[in-house]
Design goal:
By secondary structure, the chain is of the alpha/beta class. 35% of the residues lie in helices and 22% in strands. The chain has a twelve-stranded mixed beta sheet with strand order 4-3-5-6-7-8-9-14-13-12-10-11. Strands 1-2 form a two-stranded antiparallel ribbon. Strand 10 and strand 11 form a beta hairpin. The longest helix is centred in the N-terminal third of the chain and has 22 residues. The protein is globular and about 65 Å long. About 4% of the residues have low confidence.
């Protein structure tokens, strides 16, 4: 673990929990697949029991399926649980989707951007935030990022801003620029380039399309003095042709990250930059076609179970994305399961 994290993470989130979770994740990523599955099953059983007892939507869903918590005794049993759709969440939000044993006034509310239709609102608590932050930081360490490293965000941030401690600490911890997606013109790109030259970030993170547009602009203008050490694409499909252009323009590696606001960190490429490692200690990822699991190597709709959000659970949540899982060997030695490819939206 980078020494800076011992100071910056507790300051950023005003909690030591995120540091404790990160320590565990950095160890568990090297466990065997079967050991990771045991962690998943333990957390799945606890989540299902909690949802059955405290979340009206899931209690009704389980009763309708004639399913009780003891019926989940293996990871394969997750297939007994009906799929949760975005419309299910919208139609039952918030009275039936938020756990009865949580005070909704103390929860964090976030809304998706609505790229596939209507925006989706959801809640989570500080514990869930800390688990998500630790999972992101575990992945971020693979491309050399930790709070304090200069970076630029080319999208709306996934998390609420860090607490206002003092302006000095905020500057030290963040060291971040944000370019929000509005009109993309040549003048806007020139201004971004000027800011990048001034700021000299080490990491660029953002929408694939925005980074691709910027990379094309750099090549057209023959600009070669913006030199980050890594680029992370997320929120949109990264095509191999886009990767080549971005890497050529910035002369650094591109890491593909997959996540959604509602379930946060799902998977990311490591330094081998081939397949995406799933955040298995906090997510169960399935690929389905017509409600049935497909074989490894076959494309299907990506369904995710968030094992960390107890305030408003997402169990077998249909992301509306299409992807391919793989059981190929892991050259890096990590036991985390793999996504071969995220292909885009089902529609």
């Amino acid at each position: 673990m980078h020494p800076t994290l011992y100071l910056t993470l507790p300051i950023y989130y005003r909690s030591w929990e995120v540091l404790d979770v990160l320590r565990k994740l950095e160890k568990s990523q090297w466990l065997s697949p079967s050991e990771l599955e045991r962690i998943q099953l333990k957390k799945l059983k606890a989540l299902v029991k909690h949802a059955y007892e405290n979340v009206p939507f899931y209690h009704k869903t389980f009763r309708k399926a004639k399913l009780k918590p003891p019926d989940i005794s293996s990871l394969e049993d997750i297939q007994k649980i009906p799929i949760t759709t975005k419309d299910d969440i919208r139609n039952n939000f918030p009275n039936k989707t938020v756990a009865k044993n949580y005070d909704i006034r103390r929860l964090r509310k976030v809304e998706t951007g609505g790229s596939t239709g209507k925006p989706l609102s959801f809640f989570f608590d500080n514990r869930c935030l800390h688990h998500r932050a630790a999972a992101f930081q575990r992945f971020a360490s693979w491309f050399g990022f930790h709070p304090g490293v200069k970076h630029v965000i080319f999208e709306r941030p996934h998390y609420p801003s860090s607490p206002k401690i003092t302006s000095m600490l905020e500057l030290i911890v963040k060291r971040r620029l944000e370019f929000l997606p509005h009109k993309i013109t040549k003048q806007a790109l020139r201004e971004q380039v000027s800011e990048l030259k001034r700021f000299k970030p080490r990491i660029l993170i953002g929408y694939t399309s925005l980074l691709f547009l910027l990379a094309n602009f750099l090549k057209q203008e023959d600009i070669k003095d913006i030199n980050p050490t890594a680029i992370v694409t997320q929120a949109e499909t990264l095509f191999e042709s886009q990767r080549k252009v971005i890497e050529s323009a910035f002369n650094c590696p591109v890491f593909n990250h997959y996540g959604l606001k509602e379930v946060s960190v799902i998977a990311q490429q490591c330094d081998q930059r081939s397949y995406l490692h799933i955040n298995a200690e906090g997510r169960i990822v399935e690929c389905l076609r017509r409600g049935e699991n497909v074989s490894f190597g076959e494309k299907g709709e990506i369904v995710v179970t968030d094992l960390d959000n107890y305030a408003m659970p997402f169990i077998r949540y249909n992301t509306d994305d299409v992807g391919i899982l793989t059981d190929d060997s892991r050259a890096c030695g990590r036991g985390l399961p793999l996504i071969k490819e995220v292909m885009g939206r089902a529609d």
